[in-house]
Every structure is written in C-alpha cells, then in structure tokens.
Amino acid sequence: MLSDPISDMLTRIRNAVNTHKESVDVPASKFKEQIAHILNREGYVGAIERVKLESGFDVIRIALKYGAKREIVIKSINRISRPGRRAYVTSDNLPKIHNGMGIAIVSTSKGLLVDREARKAGIGGEVICEVW
Predict the structure, then answer these.
(1) How crowded is residue 9: how many other Cβ atoms within 10 Å of its Cβ?
(2) What is the pLDDT of residues 73-131, one digit of tens each?
(3) What is the number of other CB atoms lying within 10 angstroms of the CB of residue 82?
(4) What SS3 class is residue 85?
(5) If both were cysteines, with which of 40, 57, 98, 112 could 102 make a disulfide (CB 3.0 to 4.6 Å apart)?
C-alpha cells in the first residue's frame, strides 16, 4: 500500500520522462486524473486515457511530450504538500514557479487550479505540486 499515491504518480512521470518513454501508466483515481488533465491542458503531457487492464484495475495512460529534438518538456515535477506536511497558502502567497514559466497545481474550494487561475480568482488552497 502506498502512503502517498500523488507522489508516486509524479515520480512515475519524472522517471518515464528521464528515460524518454512514450507513455506511462498510473493507477487510476479521480484526483490523479484531474492532475493529468491539468498537465495536458498546460502542454506538459500529451493525450490521457483511462484504460481497464486484464487484471480488472483501471490505469491512467499518459502520453509524454518531447521537443523537436527529443528534449525534455518537463524539466522538474515535484510534490510540495505531503501527507506529513501539508502546504496551504493564501491567494497573496501563491508561488510563482520560475517567474511564471512553470506552474503550481493548487487544490482550492473551486477544484484543482493552476497558480495563475487561483491568483486571478483570489483564492488560496493546498499547493499539490510544481512543474516546470
């Protein structure tokens, strides 16, 4: 049993990107699927699909993106708020990742948002991870 499934998802993505895999499978959950869709919308990953394996378990298959010369699109993907140390911020203290070149995914009362969307809406929340 995993103590932090979100961290496991981010580590799987990080490892797959660093080894130039075409896609990565992550055990499915609604929360992880929302994170994957945000990464897709922001241009860090390709297509996302939910696949039912022969064993009966659902996985999220995430197609990874690379540049024209196979350069890595996701340079860093890190978990900020962990089960042992939650990181909550107000709208005034939302992090700016690499001066706006990266994103922070924030869990708010309006759902998962990117840091600039949360800043625009004027709401804070729990900083899940940062990507650049």
Answers:
(1) 24
(2) 999 999 999 999 999 999 999 999 999 999 999 999 999 999 999 999 999 999 999 99
(3) 12
(4) strand
(5) 98
CA distance 17 to 36: 14
And the tokens for 105?
Answer: 């995914």
Q: Rounded to whole angstroms, how far apart are CA atoms 64 and 24?
A: 7
Q: Are 94 and 115 in contact (CB under 8 A)?
A: yes
Classify residue 103 by burial, with Cβ atoms within 10 Å: 0-12, 13-18, 19+: buried
Distance CA 61, CA 26 (A): 7
The pTM score is: 0.95
The 8-class DSSP code of residue 82 comes to B
Distance from C-alpha of 74 to C-alpha of 63, rounded to nearest angstrom: 13
